[in-house]
Amino acid sequence: MNKAVNSLGTQTKNNNTSMKITRIKTSLGQFGSPVTTELSAVVERMRSPQTKETAERIATVTLRSRIAMEEGAPRYQLKDTDRLPYLVFSATFGRKGYDKPASATGLLMLNIPCPQGLRQVEELRRRVSQIPYTLLAFAGVSGVTLKVIVRCDYPAGDGKMATTIDSGDYLAFLKDAHESAARLYTSLVMCDLLVGEQSLTRGCRMSYDPQLYYNPEALPMPVVREVKNPLTDYEGTKADEAGNVIIFPDNEERQRIELEYQTCLSKAIDDGEGQAEKTLQLLADYCRKACLQEEGCVERAIWNMRFKALGADVIRKTFRNAYKDPYKGRPLSQMNEKERIMRSIEDFLSRRYQLRYNVVKQVTEFRPNDLRFKRWKPLTDRDLRSLVVEEMKEGGESWMSDIRTYVESAHVSDYNPIHEFLAACGKWDGKANYIEDFARRLPTNYSRWPQYFHRWLLAMVAQALDINRDYGNSMVPLLTGEQGYLKTQFCNHILPPSMREYYMKDIHMANAEQVERVLGRMWLVNIDEYDSKTQREQAKIKRLLTEKDVQVRKMRSDQYTMTPRLCSFIATTNDPTPLPSGDGTRRYLCIEVTGRVDMTGQIPYKQIFAQAVAELQDPDCVYWFTEDDEREIQAHNSQYQQESALENVLSQLFEPTAEHMRENFWTSTTIQTHLSKSLKSKDVPTLQAIGYALKHLRWKKYKNNGVRGFYLKLK
Fold first, then answer.
1. Residues 512 and 552: beta-carbon distance below 8 Å
2. Taking 90 as the threshold, does the pLDDT of residue 591 lie above it?
3. N or C: which end of the chain has fewer CB within 10 A?
């Protein structure tokens, strides 16, 4: 045991010799460029008297200025605050900005309030120094907080840090680590923590604290993480070979329920002495004692000709009296009117109906809870009113607003139909690569099509599971070819029939609200006849491919909420050159269809999506298009690009030359002047158009005496 600790301590020490954090200069509170710096250097600076003057000035005005700002005064103290850099301990950042960290440090900052000032800071600093996970503890710049930096174990229990990170997973790790550290430090140090929204850039200002605590050999705190599989809630669901989720219980369970009910009915008939009312009362008692579901027994009794003369209302009330326990044994005297009404609503709805909230459609769905297992359908206002009438007929005192309150609350459990389908697909048998076999139904001469379709489908499933939002499905397979090749049919059959309601054949870009709604509620959109889209619409589609979250307005609400993007795209066209000229084509994968798509035979949807889920569970699975893939795709797409008239004219008049002579140096202006000699004034292209054309031609640009241009020669 001691040997293991010593080994870990040695490794920790070696890691800390080059431990780096991020230092950021600010201007009026706004972040500048991040600078990676040694933690030890920051510690020395916090001990240095050079920091003292600025830190003391800020501590003096902090409280006064904060009150003044709350009353509307300008933020005049920022000029002092900006003199101290902002420190981010959890990660380092590079050229990709603050959204994508370059590396993880595994450091977590805790913020402990010390309203009594430096005396309390010193006492709590002494306490946290006794915890082996405390790397650094120092007084905040305001003098009324203690900042504690804790080493955490990320991503595994070996003390090693990752060089590249998934920002979404790392942020989730920091949140879990903060919860673990909060429980530990509040219990051992006997203090409270200031809890703020965790982010990758959460940090604090550098402060002056010559008495700070610094232990470069601090041990990493283990963080217990609960990794929740989004499919766990749907374990046990099954689908048929066509991919339809089976909503009926197996025959054995249905036969058991039916047999127990018939046993209760036979006994009630024998004991009822031929009296319908007595037989019904006995049936209700026997069914309750057999723990059979009330509503299913009510429906079966209503169907029975023996009780038809009594009427459905009498049958329902008889069973209600036998089963009645709406308050779970709690005395009415302990409830006020509102609680009693809400509990009666909860009891009524749980007995009579099944409710669920479809998180994809963002609507509540329902079906009768009568063991007939009907299809779920959206709960409309008309249906809601019917529920109110039924509840009142049972003697309920609630109104529509009361039942609507319950139905639209979180008491109705969430349901994700896509997750249910993926869970119902079961396990991949591993006998074939079903995804690429499906891709081969589409004939093409491009050999990498099956591999790229495989990658695209994995990205589509990963996006539905919200596995990693750094790599959204930003690629669009663009199927080109003659009419009648069944390109659209291929797109239509990527999803099984049970998922077709989450498939759309086109998207209307003019309605911005509909576009945002589609991104959050559709699993797949086929942009049919892509060439019919205007340049503005095509540009908007390209922008949508990079969206990770969408703003969606809920029904009957003026509030917008951020929803993870669900939608992936595929497109079809008859145009052999559907892409504009230039190098902005990496979001499309052009596939020339050389014949009719083979749509014969059954498509093994269960195994296709089971294979996708199984592969995504592998931590080494690559489900995004890498930079090498994008370069390959751009080179492949060049044959499908249009060439503008201006580009054609320029390529006929000029060609690049290696002779860097003064007379060969051309700018956009001199090219425009040369073209104006042969064209009418109205036909002379603008400088902007010439600039775009030159860029699309990919001619190399040079600098001559501070002027940028091209070395070209006339043909």
1. no
2. yes
3. N
Q: Which amino acid is at 23?
A: R
The residue type at 646: L
Whether the pLDDT of residue 527 is over 70: the answer is yes
309: its two tokens: 């003369």
Q: Are 523 and 359 in contact (CB under 8 A)?
A: no
Q: Cα separation of 166 and 104, whole Å?
A: 9
> Do 523 and 502 contact (CB within 8 A), yes or no?
yes
Q: How far apart are CA 306 and CA 269, in angstroms?
A: 10
Distance CA 146, CA 114 (A): 7
Q: Break the chain down into helix, strand, coil percent, rounded to 5.
A: 45, 15, 40
Is 3 exposed, middle or buried (CB count within 10 Å of its CB: 0-12, 13-18, 19+)?
Answer: exposed
Sequential DSSP letters for 40-82: HHHHHHHHSGGGHHHHHHHHHHHHHHHHHHHTT---TTHHHHT
b (16+ CB within 10 A) / e for 192-210: ebeeeebebbbbbbbbbbe
Is pLDDT above 80 for 59? no
In 521-587, DSSP assigns E strands to 524-527, 549-553, 560-564, 568-573
Would the pLDDT of 56 be above 80?
no
Amino acid identity at 57: R
What whole-number distance in Å separates Cα of residue 459 and Cα of residue 453?
A: 10
| Mean pLDDT of the residues in the chain | 80
Put the strands of the sheet holding 414-415 in their side by side order. Answer: 377-378, 363-368, 353-358, 414-415
Question: Two tokens at 522?
Answer: 């559709």
User: What confidence score (pLDDT) does residue 227 get?
Assistant: 56
Is residue 617 pLDDT above 60, yes or no?
yes
Say if CB 242 and CB 227 are below 8 A apart.
no
Has residue 80 got a pLDDT over 80?
A: no
Percent with pLDDT over 90 in the chain: 21
Q: Is the peptide bond before 155 cis (omega within 30 degrees of 0)?
A: yes
Question: How many residues in the chain?
Answer: 715
pLDDT band at 495 (very low <50, low <70, confident <90, very high): very high
Q: In 3-state terms, what secondary structure has residue 702?
A: strand
User: Could you give the dihedral angle defined by the CA atoms of residues 612, 166, 569 and 623, in that order, rounded to the nearest 10 degrees?
Assistant: -30
As a whole number of angstroms, the distance between CA 661 and CA 672 comes to 20
| Contact between residue 484 and residue 596 where contact means Cβ atoms under 8 Å apart | yes
From residue 683, alpha-carbon distances to 225, 634, 670, 679, 689 in Å are: 66, 32, 16, 6, 12
**459: number of Cβ within 10 Å:** 24
Angle value at C-alpha 447, between 444 and 451, nearest 5 degrees: 105
User: For residues 426 and 235, is the Cβ–Cβ distance under 8 A?
Assistant: no
148: pLDDT strictly greater than 70: yes
Q: What is the 3-state secondary structure (H, E, C) of 378-406?
A: ECCHHHHHHHHHHHHHCCCCCCHHHHHHH
